[in-house]
Design a protein that fits this description.
By secondary structure, the chain is of the alpha+beta class. Helix content is 34%, strand content 26%. Helix 1 (16-31) links the parallel strand 1 (2-14) and strand 2 (38-44). It is globular and about 55 Å long. The two termini are 31 Å apart.
Length: 276
């Protein structure tokens, strides 16, 4: 394993806007070569839904129900579909071409899947890359949408990830549900009727499963350690525990004020891959 260490950061429990802003701040620092590749794991101050960069919140989310249930809404810098952040493990990885990641969003996603596969192996799970074709009618919920390279265990999708490239650096964000919150999540999504909601939920449950369906004793901290070991092994660089720079914190707080406290914001010239 190379002696050049990468960075592993647990930023603790933060609100939804700051969680997304931190990831963008890390990406911008990596572009400027101020920080090494970074694997970040984090938690949420309250239940939250993160929406893909181009999702329509009015069309796809029951905003009044979210407000009543104290569920925060935030837009991710990455693409993909809606993710429910409750009883789940969330990660992000920032890395780029100078570290050998292949060019092109599809190639880079397939490359980083190997780190996820090794992470799940540390939890005793044998994950494979599904060859299911991309869904022509994607759901508002990330895990219900088939993609070019879903990672599955015994036929069930466990992890949803989405990616964004900016210049020669990429940010990949992902979620691994620990417990079954599907019914709760679907009550927050907008459907034309309750029958349509029930049908969508039933279909979702045939495709997806939480981690605890396969590893019921796995704790959040054990999952975090598995991700650190899995990506360290695959990338042949140790992810060493570290901290955000003060400039990353400052930039993240500025991004919250300027961008992430709002569900609509300026679209930059970036390349997205939607695998959530």
């Amino acid at each position: 394993m190379s002696a050049t260490a990468y960075r592993f950061i647990h930023t603790g429990v933060q609100d939804a806007a700051l969680n997304m802003a931190i990831d963008e701040a890390i990406l911008l620092h990596h572009i400027d070569e101020k920080v090494p590749p970074t694997l970040r794991v984090f938690q949420w101050k309250q239940p939250a839904i993160s929406l893909g960069r181009f999702q329509n919140v009015e069309r796809e989310i029951e905003q009044e129900v979210c407000a009543r249930e104290n569920v925060a809404l935030v837009r991710r810098p990455t693409g993909g579909r809606a993710v429910y952040h409750r009883d789940e493990f969330t990660y992000s990885i920032t890395i780029g071409k100078r570290e050998g990641v292949p060019s092109g969003v599809v190639a880079a996603y397939a490359y980083l899947l190997q780190g996820l596969i090794q992470a799940l192996q540390h939890l005793g799970l044998n994950a494979i890359i599904s060859d299911e074709r991309v869904s022509k009618t994607p759901s508002a919920a990330c895990f219900a949408s088939s993609t070019q390279a879903d990672l599955t265990v015994d036929g069930f999708k466990l992890i949803g990830s989405a990616q964004v490239w900016k210049e020669a650096s990429l940010l990949q964000q992902g979620s691994l549900p620990l417990g079954d919150r599907a019914a709760e999540f679907f009550s927050l999504l907008r459907f034309p009727s309750e029958e349509a909601r029930s049908q969508a939920l039933a279909q979702y449950n045939t495709k997806t499963a939480p981690l605890h369906a396969f590893a019921p004793q796995a704790t959040w901290d054990e999952v975090a350690q598995a991700f650190r070991l899995g990506f360290s092994s695959f990338l042949e660089h140790e992810f060493v525990p570290g901290e955000l720079l003060s400039s990353e914190w400052d930039m993240a707080r500025q991004l919250v004020a300027e961008k992430y406290n709002h569900l609509t914001w300026r679209k930059e010239k970036v390349t997205l891959i939607e695998h959530l």
